[in-house]
């Protein structure tokens, strides 16, 4: 297995109707990373769009991936890409929406539970382990008694949309720092004050 190649999967649902949903913030972060890398996503036989490149000059080799399946079926494309590129689960990073973190916050962790997130649950099942990295992009909790599924499948509100570019930039920064300096350094930067 290749140790210096990373698979960064941005989770979401396919199609333009979902593209601005809170649930798709992981794919939005990958679009920001692709823009920084100056590359474009291409279709891959694993049912994902991929972009291969490096994070920064001389940085680690990375495969950015946006599964083309629905969120709860993310595991198939992620595990297929990990096998195709020879990437161990420890070098897999899932970038996803997180309701247990306030909007405009980013946190990182290795392994642990999925917190009811069906995309993560499917990845854990497909990889056969929960020991992969997660970049958790805060979308906040639903207001009042709104159902969680309804909340994450809604587009960001007007006020949130003004702040969204900063959140996506922070998410991309978190991925870059995680890959270049490791989990602890990224956690120290993004968890301080939160």
Can you walk through the features of this model?
With 194 residues, the protein is of the alpha/beta class. The chain is built from 6 helices and 7 strands. It has helices spanning 25-37, 75-85, 118-127, 148-152, 158-181, 183-191; strands at 5-10, 42-44, 48-54, 61-67, 92-98, 106-110, 133-138. The chain has a 7-stranded mixed sheet with strand order 2-3-4-1-5-7-6, sandwiched between helices. Helix 1 (25-37) crosses helix 5 (158-181), helix 2 runs parallel beside helix 3 and helix 5 (158-181) runs antiparallel to helix 6. It is globular, with a radius of gyration of 15 Å. The model has no long low-confidence stretch (mean pLDDT 93).
Write the layout of secondary structure elements.
Elements: E1 5-10, H1 25-37, E2 42-44, E3 48-54, E4 61-67, H2 75-85, E5 92-98, E6 106-110, H3 118-127, E7 133-138, H4 148-152, H5 158-181, H6 183-191
Parallel strand pairs: 1-4, 1-5, 5-7
Antiparallel strand pairs: 2-3, 3-4, 6-7
């Amino acid at each position: 297995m290749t140790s210096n190649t990373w698979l960064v999967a941005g989770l979401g649902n396919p199609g333009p109707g979902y593209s601005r949903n809170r649930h798709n913030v992981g794919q939005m972060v990958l679009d920001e990373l692709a823009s920084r890398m100056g590359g474009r996503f291409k279709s891959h036989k694993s049912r994902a769009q991929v972009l291969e490149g490096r994070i920064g000059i001389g940085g680690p080799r990375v495969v950015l991936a946006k599964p083309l399946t629905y969120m709860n079926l993310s595991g198939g494309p992620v595990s297929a890409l990990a096998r195709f590129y020879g990437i161990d689960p420890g070098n897999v990073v899932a970038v996803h929406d997180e309701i247990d973190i306030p909007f405009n916050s980013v946190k990182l962790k290795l392994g642990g539970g999925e917190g009811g997130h069906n995309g993560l649950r499917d990845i854990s099942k497909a990889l056969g382990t929960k020991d992969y990295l997660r970049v958790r992009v805060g979308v906040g909790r639903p207001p009042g008694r709104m159902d969680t599924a309804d909340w994450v499948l809604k587009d960001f509100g007007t006020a949130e949309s003004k702040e969204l570019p900063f959140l996506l930039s922070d998410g991309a920064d978190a991925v870059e720092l995680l890959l270049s300096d490791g989990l602890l350094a990224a956690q120290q930067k993004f968890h301080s004050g939160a």
